[in-house]
């Protein structure tokens, strides 16, 4: 992987501090982004996995663990981005999937917000997939979304 010199390497924060630190050490020029809790998981899903309590609690724990282990970016849902931003400060890049324009089908996503809300809450980068790729005209959908966040 190191020979590819990626800009960002994604790991899962649940892999633990040692794994995250090893990734940071192995790729010092790469921004290591730790995924917290998938946006498709509900509180019930987490309970089934043995993660008790609301998703925000698990996200905060994993975010702190990852940043303390050296991750310089986190992946978290827009529902938790404000809490994570206050937890980790302004320097950590927050990559936010589960972003949907008003009225869009949420699909399998459990914890979503609009692009405007995600940015207002502290997201650094938005991940917007199906609202663009599943649109009748993806180019128009992308342009509309871009215009909505630049307004």
TrEMBL record:
Keywords, ordered alphabetically: Decarboxylase, Lyase, Pyrimidine biosynthesis
E.C. number: 4.1.1.23
Domain Orotidine 5'-phosphate decarboxylase residues, every copy: 1-145
Q: Where are its TM segments located? A: none
Q: Which GO terms describe its cellular component?
A: cytosol
Cited Gene3D superfamilies: Aldolase class I
Q: What is this protein called?
A: Orotidine 5'-phosphate decarboxylase
| Organism of origin | freshwater metagenome
């Amino acid at each position: 992987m190191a020979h590819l010199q990626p800009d960002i390497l994604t790991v899962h924060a649940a892999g633990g501090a040692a794994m995250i630190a090893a990734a940071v050490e192995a790729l010092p020029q790469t921004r290591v982004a730790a995924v917290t809790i998938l946006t498709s998981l509900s509180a019930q899903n987490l309970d089934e996995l043995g993660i008790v309590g609301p998703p925000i609690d698990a996200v905060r724990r994993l975010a702190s663990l990852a940043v303390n282990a050296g991750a310089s970016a986190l992946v978290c849902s827009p529902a938790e981005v404000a809490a994570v931003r206050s937890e980790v400060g302004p320097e950590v890049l927050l990559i936010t999937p589960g972003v949907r324009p008003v009225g869009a089908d949420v699909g399998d996503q459990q914890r979503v917000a609009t692009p405007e809300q995600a940015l207002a809450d502290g997201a650094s980068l938005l991940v917007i997939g199906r609202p663009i790729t599943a649109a009748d005209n993806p180019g128009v959908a992308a342009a509309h979304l871009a215009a909505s966040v630049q307004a």
